[in-house]
Amino acid sequence: MLMSGTELARAIVQRAAEKAADYTRRTGAKPCLATVIVGEDPASVTYVRMKQNRCHKAGIESRHVALPERTTTEELVAQIRELSDDPAVHGILLQHPVPHHIDERAAFEAIAPHKDVDGVTMHSFAGMSFGHNDFLSCTPGGIMRLLDAHDVEIAGKHAVVIGRSPILGKPAAMLLLARDATVTICHSKTVGLADVVRTADIVVAAVGKPRFVQGDWIKPGAVVVDAGYNEGNVGDVDFDAAVDHAGLITPVPGGVGPTTIAVLLEQTVDASLRQLDA
């Protein structure tokens, strides 16, 4: 079976739109998401445009901040702090990745915790690790929503997360651990990776390499979540080979991607309501 995220994302966005409309009725304004992008990476530009369109459909104001490639860490941090101090902005998204000369972690940490709707700060990671989930990292949050929507049993299962990114692999592992899975995090230095994956009831592929996870790595009946998106509309899993082994598998595109954006919009609206009632 395919774990499509399209219908699930539509339902999440619809509920977010209803809450956004309530915010607008109460204030006369819209919840506002500020998106910051540095440079003109084509994939990032396309992704930001997609987020802006989804915001519009959900009744969320989208403020776009485009900075040149030459922007320094200090200039980016100053811009993010300015948005953090702006009461009209409820959520801040820094489009990843930033150019190599920028200290991405310093930029993330400039986001005020109550506006970290993409769940990228150390504050949000600590919350996910300790079960105080104000804001989830959006892709891991979308993954959990997908698993729940397809009635995947998590407690007691062995989950293998391939990738240790601080905004994807690590938070995904923490969210699975919080649901009582036994979690193994694999990475570029893991010895015998294929053998480790073969023991997994749930596989989360977040390595950033096209078709990296092979079909014969998948235990028969395992749940396979492909969180990768690579050039050519392919994920991190060799889908054609893995589909014959997996019990459930996400397609790329149309699996994790739609739920990622839906969670971002939902958390933006939630942030606006929390700030209103604070």
Automatic annotation (TrEMBL):
**Gene Ontology MF term list:** methenyltetrahydrofolate cyclohydrolase activity; methylenetetrahydrofolate dehydrogenase (NADP+) activity
**Domain of life here?**
Bacteria
Tetrahydrofolate dehydrogenase/cyclohydrolase NAD(P)-binding domain: residues covered: 137-274
Its Gene Ontology cellular component terms are: cytosol
User: Matching Pfam families, A to Z?
Assistant: THF_DHG_CYH, THF_DHG_CYH_C
Positions binding NADP(+) in this chain are G163, R164, S165
Q: Which GO terms describe its biological process?
A: L-histidine biosynthetic process; methionine biosynthetic process; purine nucleotide biosynthetic process; tetrahydrofolate interconversion
Q: Which UniProt keywords apply?
A: Amino-acid biosynthesis, Histidine biosynthesis, Hydrolase, Methionine biosynthesis, Multifunctional enzyme, NADP, One-carbon metabolism, Oxidoreductase, Purine biosynthesis
UniProt pathway annotation: One-carbon metabolism; tetrahydrofolate interconversion
Question: Which EC numbers characterise this protein's activity in its record?
Answer: 1.5.1.5, 3.5.4.9
Span of domain Tetrahydrofolate dehydrogenase/cyclohydrolase catalytic: 3-118
Q: Which reaction does it catalyse?
A: (6R)-5,10-methenyltetrahydrofolate + H2O = (6R)-10-formyltetrahydrofolate + H(+); (6R)-5,10-methylene-5,6,7,8-tetrahydrofolate + NADP(+) = (6R)-5,10-methenyltetrahydrofolate + NADPH
- SUPFAM superfamilies, per database record: Aminoacid dehydrogenase-like, N-terminal domain, NAD(P)-binding Rossmann-fold domains
Q: What does this protein do?
A: Catalyzes the oxidation of 5,10-methylenetetrahydrofolate to 5,10-methenyltetrahydrofolate and then the hydrolysis of 5,10-methenyltetrahydrofolate to 10-formyltetrahydrofolate.
How does this chain assemble? Homodimer.
Q: What family does the database annotate?
A: Belongs to the tetrahydrofolate dehydrogenase/cyclohydrolase family.
The name this protein goes by in its record: Bifunctional protein FolD
Q: Which gene encodes it?
A: folD
